[in-house]
């Protein structure tokens, strides 16, 4: 008579340690998600304030200026948050230089704005907003933590029964 596989008893299913630690490691993305989303909203608002100023609401220029500082500080916070994704999260490293580059571009953008070099200031502003949006889209994507990257479940893993491994 063929032997039927015996399912594990209730309450005894244990997940592989890698899956448990990867779920715990998910928090490392949240500071970056929050910081880069706020930065993107602030950067997008720059175009709104610029438009108001160009339409004759002169007070919007001061708001544009203050908002530039707020956006710059928030991108610096996003850069620090990106470090958490790599250490201890062991995730992607490239958001760190990407955010660092974005902070540098904002510095250049502020200098161009204060010196009224609008021929570069406006297209660079658009490029900065696009880069920030791309980083935000990446931040909110589902990330597979590297600790769970084992391609096939191991036979000796506690969660794998003989039946599921076939
Ligand atoms: C993306 C980030 C941006 C930053 C950090 C930034 C920063 C600045 C700063 C510091 C000033 C000088 C304000 C002052 O003189 O009090 C300025 C001026 C200005 N910016 Fe921006 N800006 C950004 C984006 C934009 C965008 C997207 C536009 C247009 C679509 C724009 C249009 C202008 C205009 C029209 C001025 C006024 C120049 C003048 O006084 O003649 N800026 N910006």
Using brief descriptors, characterize the structure shown.
binds protoporphyrin IX containing FE; elongated; mainly alpha; 0% strand; 166 residues
Structure description:
The chain is an all-alpha fold and 166 residues long. 66% of the residues lie in helices and 0% in strands. The protein has a domain of 115 residues. Helix 2 packs antiparallel against helix 3 and helix 4 packs antiparallel against helix 5. The longest helix has 28 residues. The protein is elongated and about 85 Å long. It binds protoporphyrin IX containing FE.
Estimated radius of gyration? 24 Å
Strand fraction: under 5%
Distance between the termini: 20 Å
Total helix count?
6
Q: What hetero molecules are bound to the protein chains?
A: protoporphyrin IX containing FE
Structural class category: mainly alpha
Q: Let me know the average pLDDT.
A: 84
Low-confidence sequence ranges: 150-166
Short description:
This protein has 166 residues and is mainly alpha-helical.
Topology (elements, then pairings):
Elements: H1 17-25, H2 29-54, H3 59-86, H4 95-114, H5 118-140, H6 162-165
Helix pairs in contact: 2-3, 2-5, 3-4, 4-5
The structure holds protoporphyrin IX containing FE (HEM).
